[in-house]
Write a structure and sequence with these properties.
single chain; 602 residues; alpha/beta; Rossmann fold; Helicase, Ruva Protein, domain 3; 4 domains; 24 helices; 19 strands; flat; disordered N terminus
Length: 602
């Protein structure tokens, strides 16, 4: 070990004083320690989720992690839009054409066997790519059956997922996040704090050699599992990772038996970032003690004495883990408002649609290059290459030309996000104007501004009196939308069914043009005017529910904002029939309104 490491004179199995690197819980020290422990047991720990923007701090951590890798360790980088052929492997086109027989080409997952796989922009990875990564991680091999090839190759690697997400709603998919032992966040670390690593390759090699002989006691495993349960961690992988990290920490310190400080390290690095709740508070000191239990035989008393030590060990690990929870995360846990599941940021939230010639490549299909479809030359040759020897034998020719047939044609398919159009349907009737029309206008202005930031189109439909009318056709002009909204008068009856019908017609028109419509209905739900302009609450309510069911039948995304002073069952029933998200305005501020629209549009 180097000068900053533990005492090399400590015999294996002997517990030494906890070193400074294990007792200090600064974010950078923990990040460096996680890199070292991942290198000691890459396959057992799974890897690291590194949440940080591109910058000197992240670059320094990556340099430290790469320097710790033993010589000859394979390291591969997976780009964001990696193809299946490059990720899993496939037919080597040039070698196949030269040899006249199928020749396999190894993919990134196989090339990284026994090493590190860096995943760039991991928060934007496609679910299909994540599924292939998790399948290879769980099985430890890559199964390839394509292009006339059938092979199984080992693939055991540690994944370093570079998460550049900014908000809480943008991050790594849970399927990948759950399979990584370490969840690091470097956003709060300053450049001058990112110093060199106290470990080197020799430390890692010594720890790797000692790791198979490291043992962990049953009561220590029970303490880690109990800590995970107390912190509300639902996945069993967290407890397994904690045990593996504790063993790796013991090996780094030259021990063959896991000690208490190793459990504290595992709790700090593995369990603390995954916490979703705090353990129940202990009773206050002035509380009355529970009544004494009747005395048991000596045998039971001996068993309770044996169980006392594991309980103290669990309290120690829980205390160390709870102390490592960041202050911001701890505050959210205390308020019970933490959301551990990260969804994709809605951003410019349009539906993903297939396109013949524009957008991002999304694989290949068998077909002919007609009607604007693009021929994928490489994939066409890849499909024809395995059959060249048979085709030449059929024709009795010995030509070097490649024979391509109609069945070999491959076309590139594309996907793109369609443009989103947010259609606001505003209730301007007398009941709404009396209650909340001014407040509803303010909420609509906030939503309009948010749609403008996301480059969505907006449209405005209002209904009052006996009819509904389009006040603003789909546009990106925020000034026009605000001016039209400001001049919206209030008063008259509530032709709710007519308003929904007109918004639905506009949404259908947007869909026919290839866009993605989102209906945002702001009403108190008290319909009193039917479609033909006649009065009658019962008939008007029945027609409004029928219009809502028509919206659901067309599978139009919708949001119902109840503008009544007190939420009424009419609004909730209307949202249920429409298949929409229901949001009562009295309990919704500007931020929650924006988040609801983002979630609905996404």
């Amino acid at each position: 070990m180097n000068e900053s490491g533990p005492n090399p004179a400590v015999e294996p199995g002997q517990v030494a004083d906890p070193p400074a690197t294990l007792s200090v819980a600064s974010p950078w020290d923990d990040a460096v320690l996680a890199a070292a422990l991942m290198t000691v047991d890459p396959a057992g720990t799974g890897g690291v989720s590194l949440r940080a923007l591109a910058g000197p701090v992240r670059d320094q951590w990556l340099v430290v992690m790469r320097d710790l890798q033993p010589p000859g360790t394979p390291m591969r980088r997976v780009p964001l839009h990696v193809s299946d052929g490059r990720l899993l492997g496939g037919l080597d086109l040039a070698a196949t054409l030269n040899a006249g027989r199928p020749v396999a080409e190894l993919g990134l997952l196989v090339e990284a066997d026994g090493g590190i796989l860096e995943l760039a922009m991991a928060e934007r990875i496609a679910p299909s790519t994540a599924a292939r990564l998790t399948l290879a991680y769980d099985s430890g091999e890559v199964v390839l059956e394509r292009d006339g090839l059938a092979m199984r190759t080992p693939s055991k690697f540690a994944l370093v997922a570079l998460d550049e997400g900014i908000g809480e709603d943008e991050g790594l998919l849970n399927a990948l996040l759950d399979r990584l032992a370490f969840h690091l966040e470097l956003t709060q670390i300053r450049v001058h704090e990112a110093i060199a690593c106290p470990y080197d390759q020799e430390d890692v090699l010594e720890a790797r050699g000692l790791l198979p002989s490291v043992t962990i006691a049953d009561e220590q495993v029970e303490a880690l599992c109990s800590t995970a349960l107390a912190l509300g961690i639902p996945s069993l992988r967290a407890s397994i990772f904690a045990c593996r990290v504790a063993c790796a920490a013991a090996a780094m310190e030259g021990r063959t038996q896991v000690a208490e400080e190793d459990l504290a390290v595992a709790g700090r690095l593995v369990l603390a970032p995954r916490a979703t709740m705090l353990p129940p508070l202990e009773p206050p000191p002035d509380a009355e003690p529970p009544p004494p239990e009747p005395e048991e035989p000596d045998q039971d008393q001996d068993q309770s004495n044996e169980q006392q030590e594991p309980q103290e060990l669990e309290d120690l690990v829980l205390e160390a883990t709870q102390a490592a929870i960041p202050a911001g995360l701890l505050a959210q846990l205390q308020m019970g408002k933490l959301r551990r599941s990260r969804a994709r940021a809605s951003g410019k939230a349009g539906a993903i649609q297939n396109a013949p010639s524009r957008g991002r490549p999304a694989g290949v299909l068998r077909g002919e290059p007609r009607a604007g479809l693009r021929l994928n030359v490489v994939e066409t040759l890849r499909a024809a290459a395995p059959w060249q020897r048979l085709r030449r034998a059929e024709r009795g020719r010995h030509s070097t030309r490649i024979e391509v047939r109609q069945d070999d044609f491959r076309i590139t398919r594309f996907k793109h996000r369609s443009e989103t159009t947010s259609i606001f349907i505003v209730d301007a009737s007398g009941s709404s104007a009396l209650h909340r029309l001014a407040e509803a206008k303010g909420a609509v202005e906030l939503l309009l501004a948010d749609c403008y930031v996301r480059r969505d189109q907006v449209a405005l439909v209002a209904f009052r009196g006996k009819v509904a009318e389009v006040l603003l056709s789909p546009t990106r002009s925020l000034v026009r939308a605000k001016r039209t909204l400001a001049g919206l008068p209030g008063g008259g009856g509530t032709p709710l069914a007519s308003g929904i019908d007109l918004g639905m017609l506009m949404a259908d028109s947007v869909q026919r043009r290839g866009g993605t419509p989102v209906l945002i209905l702001m009403t108190d739900g008290r319909a009193n005017v039917a479609r033909d302009g006649t009065g009658g609450r019962a008939r008007a309510a029945e027609e409004a529910l029928a219009a809502a069911r028509a919206v659901r039948a067309l599978e139009i995304t919708a949001l119902v904002i109840d503008t009544s002073p007190r939420p009424q069952p009419q609004g909730r029933e209307l949202a249920a029939e429409m298949g929409a998200v229901y949001l009562p305005l009295p309990h919704a501020d500007a931020s929650s309104l924006n988040q609801a629209v983002r979630a609905t549009a996404g």
